[in-house]
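Audit log entry. Action: structure prediction of a protein-small molecule complex. Ligand: pyridoxal-5'-phosphate. The ligand was supplied as SMILES and no pocket hint was given, so placement is left entirely to the predictor. Protonation state taken as written. Sequence taken verbatim from the request; no trimming, no tag removal. Recorded inputs:
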Amino acid sequence: MDRSVRGRMGTTLPSLDVPEEPLPPDGLLRGDLELPEVSEGELVRYFSQLSQLNFSIDTNFYPLGSCTMKYNPKLHDEMASLPGFSQIHPHQPESTVQGALKLVYQLQGLLSELMGMAAGSLAPLAGAGGELAGMLMTRAYHLSRGDTARSRVLIPDSAHGTNPASATMAGFEVVTLPSDADGNTDLDALRRTAGDDLAGVMLTLPSTLGLFDTNILEVCRIVNEAGGIVYGDGANLNALLGRAKLGELGFDVVHSNLHKTFSTPHGGGGPGAGPVMVAERLVPFLPAPVVERRESKEGGESYTLATPPQTIGKMGAFHGNFGVLVRAYTYIRLLGNAGISQISEDAVISANYVLSRLRHDYDLPYDRHCMHEVVLSARSLKRDHGVSALDVAKRLIDYDIHPPTMYFPLIVDEALMIEPTETESRETLDYFIDVMKTIAQEAQDDPALLHDAPHDTPNTRLDEARAARRPDLRWKPA
Amino acid sequence: MDRSVRGRMGTTLPSLDVPEEPLPPDGLLRGDLELPEVSEGELVRYFSQLSQLNFSIDTNFYPLGSCTMKYNPKLHDEMASLPGFSQIHPHQPESTVQGALKLVYQLQGLLSELMGMAAGSLAPLAGAGGELAGMLMTRAYHLSRGDTARSRVLIPDSAHGTNPASATMAGFEVVTLPSDADGNTDLDALRRTAGDDLAGVMLTLPSTLGLFDTNILEVCRIVNEAGGIVYGDGANLNALLGRAKLGELGFDVVHSNLHKTFSTPHGGGGPGAGPVMVAERLVPFLPAPVVERRESKEGGESYTLATPPQTIGKMGAFHGNFGVLVRAYTYIRLLGNAGISQISEDAVISANYVLSRLRHDYDLPYDRHCMHEVVLSARSLKRDHGVSALDVAKRLIDYDIHPPTMYFPLIVDEALMIEPTETESRETLDYFIDVMKTIAQEAQDDPALLHDAPHDTPNTRLDEARAARRPDLRWKPA
Amino acid sequence: MQSAGFTSPYSPHTDADRSVMLKAIGVSSVEELFQDIPPQHRSPILNIPDPLPELDLRREIEAMAGENVVPGDYPCFLGGGTYRHHVPAVVRQIAGRGEYMTSYTPYQPEVAQGTLQTTYEFQSLVSQLTGMEVANAGMYEGATALAEAALMAARITRRERIAVLDSVSPSYMQVLRTYSQGPGLTLDSVTSATDPLSTETACLIVQQPNFYGYLEDLEGLAERAHAQGALLVVCSDPIALGMFKPPGDYDADIVVAEGQSLGVAPSYGGPYVGFFACKERHLRQMPGRIVGKTVDTQGRTGYVLTLQTREQHIRRERATSNICTSVALIALVTTAYMAAQGRRGLRHVAELCYHKAHYAASLIERIPGYSLPFDGTFFREFVVTCPLPPAETNERLLERGIIGGLDVSPSVDNGMLLCVSEANSRAEIDSLAEALAEIGVG
Amino acid sequence: MQSAGFTSPYSPHTDADRSVMLKAIGVSSVEELFQDIPPQHRSPILNIPDPLPELDLRREIEAMAGENVVPGDYPCFLGGGTYRHHVPAVVRQIAGRGEYMTSYTPYQPEVAQGTLQTTYEFQSLVSQLTGMEVANAGMYEGATALAEAALMAARITRRERIAVLDSVSPSYMQVLRTYSQGPGLTLDSVTSATDPLSTETACLIVQQPNFYGYLEDLEGLAERAHAQGALLVVCSDPIALGMFKPPGDYDADIVVAEGQSLGVAPSYGGPYVGFFACKERHLRQMPGRIVGKTVDTQGRTGYVLTLQTREQHIRRERATSNICTSVALIALVTTAYMAAQGRRGLRHVAELCYHKAHYAASLIERIPGYSLPFDGTFFREFVVTCPLPPAETNERLLERGIIGGLDVSPSVDNGMLLCVSEANSRAEIDSLAEALAEIGVG
Ligand SMILES: Cc1ncc(COP(=O)(O)O)c(C=O)c1O
Ligand SMILES: Cc1ncc(COP(=O)(O)O)c(C=O)c1O
């Protein structure tokens, strides 16, 4: 920390109330540990000032596609920090944490119901952790049947990078599955590749194009018949809550991102949670632990941590990101049946509203209704005015709007992936739409304005090449 | 709220779990109540965005003279919001709030000790409330002695506006006491006016010039001999903590501003607290309630709310700003003896450092060491370059520094009253000093730059005349 | 371990910093800077405990907090000026932002638009709620707001008698008395019946709902006051205003209220916030800060403190009040609360209180030995006549884990003022009624 | 009361909004937007409870939280991977700022310098603490960080055997096993004695202090690993690093740690943060986000995500890890904690733990029937052999209001792993010793 000065204190030193023990020999002890030395007030100012350099949901429209940047209710944080939740130790005897276990048990049930699955485990620590768990279950399932040749996992060309990375970590070979002209799974390609070596597919529904794959039932049928497992990347569940259950469509396993669909705060890049919910045949393989409910003969109930019989193992040292689970539970219970279905309705209306009002200003790669997000393209702007998706994104910053996801999915040139979410008002969407139109106009009138954007931030565009070439990843004490 | 839209909800409606009672007749009920209708997320964004438009201690150097804008420790807020403090009701039986009463009792003692007084009441709700209490005690004291002709209160020309206002509210006539050439009380003037009609004087020590009145013992003697009461405005106690006790100097009553000296947050303009501590002869007149300690014969202790025998009455419906008292108590206990004395030492060093480094760039009305704050003047800048104290103040904003107090005390032309406090680092002071020097230079080179300042804020200078001429004090529903 | 000596975490100065600075100042020791203090009084012995580290201190303070019996853990039926209502989490979160907590009075509007615009919002909401034309930025709390209203009425009418309805809160009366000493105002207690006001009466003060929870006949009272040229000052209740006709509709001249019930924690009595609203024609006699909307040099909307010539820092001994630091942060809490509740929410909360209080009254009324001495419409509070002295009844309740009501036996024989809000569940109410029945006559 | 139907406070859309938008979209009902869903699966029955208002929900959840026995209210001596330490209030306050809480991965550096610069600070502090050259922005938690370190070592050495010292935490071992399945790594359990490593060994994994609280001979272990061309991977403890020589001083190649003890609440096991540091030459094999310092087009310093070609969103199936969303906010908590403790504070906390744990051990050792089975230097944890099975001992302790230690009898006969930190007062320690003495042999 640049403001460190030898001798300053940022806190007080608790007193020693026991006799001193001689310290271990010097050889074991370290010399000076150069941590920052700042007063408490300087600390607060440092972190407060820096915080204001962030755009955030609390302060900005943040239509970052695929990330579901919705409002994070403040009640959740209060619930998660109740001492009865935040101060309990993961090794406590189960009899002393029945409230916590009950909450986990109930959340397992709620998420299973929402996804139409038989059961699930809340142990995975983020979406990618859920993917890894799902792929390891796929592996364990096939192996448990002596089916040892299933080495390949099909993944759409539009998929998020974590999908192929997770499949690889689970020991599979990744084969890319193309999309058809409508943005659906290319069924012919699927049929060609779905053979005896097929372990499974990883699908995102709606896809990262923001489209509901109208071939989905057929896809599941083909994979199933080929003996494969259908994995659902649930990052986009915000579109489907209460509208469709992935289990009913034929999915075998789905992870959901509690930090997206279930509104737990994104924290500048986590923590999240990536529970996996599964169909009957995968239940024995779930990651540990799961919470089970026991009824005593007297009608009392108790909850216990259990290890599924053929578990793939643990996804972390303890029982999942409990603090995140409390938030998601609070969310689902407050909104309830009626509120949950309203989420997808409003999210989908908002995205389509943006689509319909911007379709003539930007390219629309697939001319269909979208689901909860819309992928536009700056292809024509680029061709005609040399203005890229990046330029558009950076220019939005000048209007206090966080840029959409850019250049993803990879199959759309100059992609701008816009996810408004259900928590943004129509007025905000109108403002965004107006700004996007203005920017399209600016691209014609004054492309340099966009190339140089953003203008009003403490930093203009940063030299990323230099950062990678000459990595400066830490300060060192003088 | 400009973003209100009919039908939106910012919260949930608690359920009705009892039978309904018929409502009173329509004639008693109101029609629509036009409060804002916004979603919870919009609410958070509205208030979060607006908050960032404030300069604050958490984010800026804030050397606002006379206000002691020191760092507000975060521990205090946690302590004040412990359910055992924040959720207790002021009408609870005393047996159920012994912890709260003990804290108040202990704080009474700590403040009395710090000010060298016999006792005190924590009931006044801010500094001005303490002043009013003090003046009413002065009144009650004289009346209790049948001394009915004491109608005048002497107040220095440098005093804060609350002093004369409070004296008036207590029914006194205010007479202005001039300062001498060194910034001390003009003893001759005092002798001339201290007669039989003298109720008392209201002194600030150090004075609002940031100076320790070297005549103070003589002042107290004269007033005392004339039969008057010496009231101390303790707004500037940050300079004296552990260095001098006002009671020992001859003061009869002192208020202190817990939101200044004792670091409770200023809250954008309160809440604060203004305890009054008094010498023996005023104890019977203290505002109610005070907390008393009872010992039982078995050695147990208990605390009770008491009404002093000749009390001037209550200063608010309940027992003072308890939440503020918890914070001040926490502050004093954490710092303790050693830490408390360090406050004044560091505050005084900082102010003198600023003084000594800026004395050639700005006018110094009194060429003496100052105490915890220094009053400079832009008199020469004004005369030579047409640049006022206001211009300097506004220009500081462009450097992310909150302006000092301006045009106060009234006896210094173009006053800039700078109070760095002990919680600002030397680096921050050096930055401020450099900026002040730069501004002095800018005043010569480019006065318009200063007249137009600030430049980088969402608002440039605001039209205050218009605001007062055509008051627009609220929105009205459409 | 090395005993490090105490270093304050709040002061960044190191010994090295201090010596650099002292050198720049040109003194050889810090003592020189304090030499103006008479030597015999310099650096006195300070009988204050030693520093306590945060961990140790926290333990001590938590223990003190733990000695208190906490409503919520215990069902609680106290009201009488402080009310327990559910506070949505979002309200706390908003008011906790450092930029609001640690700024001060917005003297420099260019760097205080956060405080200024939210205060403008506060004034607007208070005006709406009370049905008045204008409101200020808030007073310390309800009782001092009421006292300042009396002083203001006296200034406006140049009269010196204050008529106070006998159903006004006794502690508010005490504060009125405190504030009346200076200007020498006379307080006349009047009943809701027909006591005539005099032509020397500056104002008639009415609490609505009154201290006992019941509605007063504001229409009749307004007429009585205005007939004598006196102002009508109403001390109102913000939650009640969610459903009842506001004082503005009855031609009230000044309306004050304790704002605590709108999202502010009880905190053993403070800090709270006083609402203060009046007719526009009395604006320049108002005490307190006022924020106004204006424009900047580039024509953009902005907010400033305005009409400051009323205030102590300009007008000094002729100011409308001595108030300076007020309770901006608490006003912000109520603003966030009102905005969160919105049009439908506040009405809903008010009706919940109404239904729950009536449910409680209906249960208790049926218990032998208990009765409701007053007739009329009540809102969230009502008085019960107990068979035992209320203090004793409360003790018995406490033994059963219930914090009872306020003892108002000084004014109503064996009277206990019970308060029921949405924060009291039906189960709590039922347990109160059961306990009262059990306690019975002893 | 009007039954208003449920309106979500989180969605601002009113029916009027919806119809305007649907019209602009050009559909007559929202159902049309969902028509791609196969009709037989559209809008299934959803067996989810009805909406619950905040007040009601809060009551329910507080009741659940209330069913748990809370360390702090009860003296607690559990460690084993999660540690109770005093957290200064300032740490919580900082991490609670909405701008940190509600932003996401800093893909757009111009509007994320807050997250980026504090992450750079985090990396610097982790590097300092571990004595390593570079650190990343954090992993999910300690155990997955360790597992990823094993995968990284396998990539670097192109070897497939992972040697794990038998004193590594059993739950960390389980996670290692989970992560080893995919790449087909073999885990070899080795003792601290002289088991030779093979030339197929990618790395030797050591926990320091080990699971039982004792120091391992890092110097010897480093030699053994390096002699075979294997990497030394150390799973460290951040508080211990406040006083003990860091793994970097022993030539460790990769160092991971669970960061929870630095200011993060236990929260029943998560969210936590995994520290991950290594030698600079292995940088490009690191998993996870990395922030680098650079300049903007105007030459001003700024921070960006860097070396992203390692990551899944660029490299996809050839990425160094699948990690995407990590635990930035928890990393921030530890950053604030480390900065608050500073140079002197962390050392002090470490020494307090050391003294208190030894005090506890010395008391318990003297109780007949109890003994310390291990020799060597321990830090904050130690194993006690109990006369009764630890599970039973713990039950008896709980009856006395004490949460005992971790049952490690699977690996140590009647072994209980006790943890004592500065959060345990002497009174707590004394009461534990007394209780153990009382419980004795049954
Ligand atoms: C479509 C998709 N899949 C998977 C992920 C990975 O989830 P997480 O970041 O929680 O690991 C993301 C998140 O960015 C995503 O957008
Ligand atoms: C010297 C002085 N006296 C009195 C006061 C009044 O104190 P308060 O604002 O707490 O009422 C102030 C506060 O600004 C002050 O600076």
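Audit: result stored. The two ends of chain B are 12 Å apart (CA to CA). Chain B touches chain D at residues 5-16, 20, 38-42, 44, 48, 73-75, 77-78 (CB under 8 Å).
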